[in-house]
Amino acid sequence: MSEEQIAASVERRALRFDPERFQGEYPVVVEGLVNRFDGIAVHEGLDLKVRRGEVLGVVGGSGTGKSVLMRSIIGLQVPDEGQIEVLGHKVTDLAEGSQADIRSRWGVLFQGGALFSTLTVGENVEVPLREFYPEIEPELRHEIARYKVRLSGLPEDAASKFPSELSGGMKKRAGLARALALDPELLFLDEPTAGLDPVGAAAFDRLTRELADVLGLTVFLITHDLDTLYEICDRVAVLADRKVIAVGTIPELLALDHPWIQEYFNGPRGRAAKASQERAKAMDKPAGGKA
What we know:
With 291 residues, the chain is an alpha/beta fold. The protein has helices spanning 3-17, 66-73, 96-103, 121-132, 138-151, 168-179, 198-215, 226-232, 250-254, 259-266, 268-284, and strands at 28-37, 40-50, 55-60, 81-86, 89-90, 106-109, 186-190, 218-222, 235-240, 243-248. The strands form two sheets. The protein has a six-stranded mixed sheet, with helices on both faces. Strands 2-1-4-5 form a four-stranded antiparallel sheet, covered by helices on one side. The chain is globular, with a radius of gyration of 20 Å. The termini are far apart.
């Protein structure tokens, strides 16, 4: 089966099985979120709105609950208080069966890829297909998996390899292929470039941006990588003081006088990331200096 035939099959599957895509302004809305562990509040009245089609970077110091926030949004963490609305549905109020329906509309890449070690890459990608669409014929399921593997930037023969045979960067891409298996509207990425060398991290950033633009994804991206924030994020949400203290573009955040924001973006690594972005923009300009 050719790549065009695979893509057509995927499109037919999407038209047959997937619900109508969300058309509202904010596919993720968090209001008054409270998460406590052993009586200690990690989040206290946290509010956040994610715009449709944006790549939102999420940053904060250690212990500010970035991953807890993501887990709350995707239903893996039950908050103590607050409301979370995803794609127009209040996930904090959904029954178990309804949660399964909404979960088919997002993809998640956890830290390290979280691949099943006893399954090949292709079989890992097939896991959500088996779970949500068991009626798909095996041949088509295999072809979809191979298509997603290539979409993630891996060679087709990677589909038959086990996670132990992959490099760190390849494991990340395999995890991304699985996250894309169901043609999601939302993509959640938890530290996707952690542990990668600068070249591998930059390549993953470019792939994320390209996929977001081409597939119309809304991306919730937890990261500490300043290069990632400068290169691909439309806005950045800052977690501190148990809340989201600011959301905006990097220039908008730099205009704020919060000490953590200033230290983070104006520290040595922040200045280096900004300088790198400015050099890249200068190199992209045509000869003569005209944009």
